[in-house]
UniProtKB/TrEMBL annotation:
InterPro entries attached to this UniProt entry: ComplexI_NDUFA9_subunit, DoxX-like, Epimerase_deHydtase, NAD(P)-bd_dom_sf
Protein name (database record): SDR family oxidoreductase
MF terms (GO), sorted A to Z: protein-containing complex binding
Alphabetically ordered keywords of this record: Membrane, Transmembrane, Transmembrane helix
Domain of life: Bacteria
Domain NAD-dependent epimerase/dehydratase, first and last residues per copy: 3-193
Sequence intervals crossing the membrane: 303-323, 343-361, 373-391, 397-414
UniProt entry tagged with the keyword Membrane: yes
Length: 423
């Protein structure tokens, strides 16, 4: 079968791409960015659903397509952009599929159409309804929380899993998580047994569990005992959600707060009767993911970020405050006195502050870390050439620059490029 896979570089799309090619299907895969990694049996085309929403002729429909699978989507605090992606752009995509007489498999989300106050689900539901009223053969697959390597929610849970005491937004609401391998299995089963009529099918794991029980399964897979859980006070959760919305956090914002406080359950019989597929228990899938070493690195990542932020901002405050005269003396030792010395100290402090605050902006974090590493190397080289006696400071202040340098390198290597965060 020749399949157009939209969102092929996202979490679900990447796994579907592998599963479909291994099953022998020919794939035309799309991504917002130009992809330069050829795969056997895969042709790539650029497609940005936001652009498609504005200009439906911006995408050239590939020839001889038998099926469209739409795996594009994101849970974002940019509500307007998310709705353009998941509603306007997706509906334009469905129009193209209808014009070419192609059946559609839409990867939606469990709860779409039932939680109108969650924009992520509401925008998915509008696209689902639009697809079903077109009158073309279509299946809307609504999975529960999908876990596996590369997922945003998966990474957040993996980051929490190493801690013996874990804060949660809620530990009463239940969900039915499934592994991404089961989602791929369900898609392949539907391709073998396509339903006679267009339908909406929930895709859920066989076990209902709380967030704490889910994390305990992830901990057990990594060789750790059950953790203790602390539910955050409602006021603190709301404050964190507001802050997360302003900072663009995917894991904590008003939408995720609402989702965490509600049951999101369904039955698996409809899918089983349609194509004979049922999801396996999540615990039976946790062999290669998560891994304890990776989870510990991810857990330490925000702490290292906080330490670097404290170092850069602390240095800036000290240089502009109680350490200002000390900075002038160091400049004088290097032969820079008067207003040039004051300007150098103030400029250096402001630069340190800018590099510290820049760490808070995810889209700028990689270039900021590169700049910090370059600046530390420049500082160390300058001191070595003009003020070498500072290497013999009893507190080894210059030598400690290299510890900070290693922390910055470690954090840089753990930070994926911005264009790889979403499909």
């Amino acid at each position: 079968m020749r399949i157009l896979l939209v969102g092929a570089t996202g979490f679900i799309g990447r796994h579907l791409l592998v599963a479909l090619t291994q099953a022998g299907h020919q794939i035309v895969a799309t991504s917002r960015q130009v992809v330069e990694r050829p795969l056997p049996g895969v042709a790539w085309q650029r497609l940005d659903l936001r652009e498609l929403a504005d200009e439906p002729t911006s995408f050239t429909w590939p020839p001889a397509i038998d099926l469209l699978i739409n795996a594009a989507g994101e849970l974002s605090s940019d509500l307007a952009g998310m709705c353009r992606l998941q509603t306007a752009g997706t509906c334009a995509l469905f129009d193209l599929a209808s014009q070419h007489g192609v059946r559609v498999l839409q990867i939606s989300a469990l709860g779409a159409g039932m939680q109108a106050d969650v924009p992520f689900l509401a925008s998915k539901a509008r696209a689902d309804d639009y697809l079903l009223q077109l009158g073309r053969p279509a299946v809307v697959l609504r999975p529960s929380l999908v876990l596996g390597p590369g997922g945003t929610s998966s990474a957040w849970l993996q980051r929490l899993s190493p801690w013996p005491v874990i804060p949660l937004l809620n530990n009463r609401a239940q969900l039915q998580p499934l592994h991404v391998d089961d989602l791929c299995g369900a898609v392949l089963a539907l391709l073998r047994n396509w339903p006679v009529q267009s339908t909406v099918l929930p895709l859920v794991g066989p076990q209902a569990m709380t967030q704490g029980q889910l994390l305990d399964q992830l901990r057990h897979a990594q060789g750790w005992p059950a953790a203790r859980y602390w539910v955050l006070p409602a006021a603190l959760s709301r404050l964190g959600a507001i802050l997360g919305e302003r900072m663009g956090w995917a894991a904590l914002n008003p939408q995720t707060l609402r989702l965490a406080q509600r049951d999101n359950l369904a039955g698996g019989d409809a899918l089983a009767s349609t194509c004979g597929f049922r999801c396996a228990p999540l615990s039976s899938r946790l062999h290669d993911w998560p891994q304890a070493a990776q989870s510990c690195a991810m857990a330490l990542q925000p702490l290292v970020l906080a330490v670097l932020l404290l170092i850069w901002l602390g240095t800036a405050l000290v240089c502009l405050g109680p350490g200002f005269d000390w900075g002038l003396r160091i400049m004088a030792e290097a032969g820079i006195t008067g207003w040039p010395g004051k300007l150098a100290v103030i400029s250096g402090a402001l630069l340190d502050a800018a590099l510290g605050f820049g760490l808070l902006l995810r889209r700028w974090r990689q270039p900021i870390l590169h700049a910090q590493i370059g600046l530390m190397l420049a500082y160390s080289l300058t001191i070595s050439l003009w003020l070498p006696h500072y290497w013999f400071d009893p507190y080894m202040a210059v030598g400690k620059n290299f510890a900070v340098l290693l922390l910055s390198l470690w954090l840089l290597w753990l930070s994926p490029p911005p264009d790889k965060r979403h499909g």
